[in-house]
Amino acid sequence: MKEPISDQILTAASALFYSEGIRAVGIDRIIEEANVAKATLYRHFPSKDHLVAAYLQDRHDRVIRSLQEVLDAASTPRDQIKLIFERLYEKADSPEFRGCAFALAVAEHGDSERVLTVARTHKKVVRDIFRTILSRADVKPDQAAAHLSLLYEGALATVAVGRDPQAVLVARDCALSVFDAAIYSTTSLEKNGT
Predict the structure, then answer these.
(1) Quick one: pLDDT at residue 10?
(2) For labeling, which of 83, 116, 122, 193 is most exposed (least CB within 10 Å)?
(3) CA–CA separation, 36 vs 30, rounded Å?
(4) What is the pTM of this model?
């Protein structure tokens, strides 16, 4: 079965945007890689801004689906946090890995409200996933979820700059310490009756 034209365009654009950068890739290059006419591209994506937003939305959907698979694969909240960072390490340990597609897009295309909206939504959903994990462990999730989210984002940024995927494993260890401290704090409060 042949891939729909819009998916063909999006696949070509996504690979180029992530590997070379949004500003570096022009519409003509995407048309060439997708093997479509300019009118066809613009029929599916009225502007480059729309195409960038679609690329980020597709990336968001894939990342969240991957994180949901982790939640389904690991049985305890601690194991879920550990596995999230270990899966990130697997991705980061690749020569093609450039860091967070959303941070890269905002750095290059942050004047676009569409791009900002998708990127901010993505970051909020990731934080909400950490919040959900912590809630399942009967931990007050807000502060610990913010810490876990920052460790996740920091790992992405550190690998992008330093090109050392080991940073993700350091972030994993810190995340597990945050989780353990949140559990300890909750248990201590319960023992003291507060």
Answers:
(1) 97
(2) 193
(3) 9
(4) 0.91
- The DSSP symbol for 193 reads T
Closest by CA to 18, choosing from 92, 111, 102, is 102
**Mean pLDDT split into 10-residue runs, the chain, 194 residues:** 89 97 96 96 96 97 96 95 97 94 94 95 97 92 93 96 95 98 78 60
Residue from 182, 191, 192 nearest 137 by CA: 182
Which residue from 164, 134, 161 is spatially nearest to 149, judged by alpha carbons? 134
Length, in residues, of the chain: 194
What gap in Å lies between CA 53 and CA 36, rounded to an integer? 20
CB-based burial label for 182 (10 Å; 0-12, 13-18, 19+):
buried
Q: Which residue has 């066809």 as its token pair?
A: 40
pLDDT of residue 186: 72
- Amino acid identity at 169: L
Q: Return the number of other C-beta atoms located less than 10 Å from residue 35's C-beta.
A: 11
For the chain, what is the largest distance between any 2 Cα atoms, rounded to a whole number of angstroms?
Answer: 69
Cα separation, 23 vs 19, whole angstroms: 12
Looking at residue 160, its pLDDT comes to 92
Taking the mean position of all CA atoms in its chain, how far away is CA 141?
20
